[in-house]
Amino acid sequence: MKKDLVTLRDLSADDCEALLERSLELKVRHAAGISDQTLQGKTLGIIFDKPSTRTRVSFEVAMIQLGGTPLFLSAQDTQLIRNEPIADTARVLSRYLDGLAVRTYSQDLLNELAAATSIPVINGLTDLYHPCQVLSDLMTILEKKGRLEGLKIVWVGDGNNVAHSWLNAAAILPLNLVVACPEGYYPDEAILKAAVEDAKGEIVMLSDPEEAVRDADVIYTDVWASMGHESEYKRRKEYFAPFQVNEDLLIRAKQDVIIMHCLPAHRGEEIDAEVLEGAGSVVWDQAENKLHMHKAILERLYNLTNR
Hints:
It is a single chain. The protein has helices at residues 13-31, 54-65, 86-96, 107-116, 131-145, 161-172, 189-198, 209-212, 233-239, 247-250, 273-276, 283-305; strands at 43-48, 69-74, 100-103, 121-125, 152-156, 176-180, 202-206, 218-221, 258-261. With 307 residues, the chain is α/β, with parallel strands linked by helices. Helix 6 (161-172) links the parallel strand 5 and strand 6 (176-180). The radius of gyration is 19 Å and the shape is globular. The protein starts with 12 loop residues before the first helix and ends with a helix. The mean pLDDT is 95.
C-alpha cells in the first residue's frame, strides 16, 4: 500500500520520529563522505507550477545522492495545461515513475492527484500547507537543542501555509507552539481548531508578539506576503510592522534562543538583517537540512509503498 505526504496529518508520531532520526543520520553520513545508494534505480517526478530554489534543488540532489533519478517537469510543459483530467495524468505518471513531488497552488488538486496515483505523492508546497519544510525545521531544532519536547516554539507573522503545517505538527508531536499573528491574519480556523483539539502539547494563539516570544526557545518567521498575496504587499507591510523579528523583540526571549526563517527573507521587513545574520540564526543550517530530510522522506515513502 502506498504512503503519501500530502499534509503532516498523513504521518504518525512514529513516522515523524523515524524521519528525524534518519535525516540526522544521513547528514552525518554525508559529511563523512559515505554514499548511500538506497534508491538506486528509482525515479522521482518533480512537477512545480510555483517558483522554487531550495525545495526543487534539495529534492533533485536528494534523489541523485541516494542513487535515483529526478525528472523535473514544469506544469506548463504537461498536458494539465490543456485541461487533461488530473486523474488521467496521475494514472499515466504512475506507470512511468516511482514517486511524485508536487509544488502547486491548490491543495484540492494535490489531493486529487494523490488519490489517483499508485505511487507516493509528496507535497512540495501548496497555498495551504508546506509539510516537508516543517519536518526539516523540526530536524534543525532537534539538532540544535537536542530535544523537541518542553521547548517553547513561537511562530511570528502571517498565519500562512508554513504556520498551518506547524499546527499539524503540534497535533502529532508533543510540541509547545505559540502562534502570534495580527488579527485578521490568523491561520485557517478549521486547521487551528483541529490542531488544538488533537494537540499533544500546548497550542496558544496570540496577537501580541512581545507576549508571544517571552522565554521563547525558538522564534520562527516568514515573509509577510506569501506567493499569491503579492497584491496585498503594501497593506501587509504596514500592518505587520510590529511583528518584525528584531533585537527589541529578542530581549524577551531566552538568551540562547534560535532564530528560524524558511527563506527567502526580506531583510528589514519580517526580520532585521542583524538578527538574520546574528549568532542565534540557524537559517543556513535550516536550509541545508531540507536536503537531508528530503532524503529521509523519499526513502521512507518509497520503502513503505514497496512493502
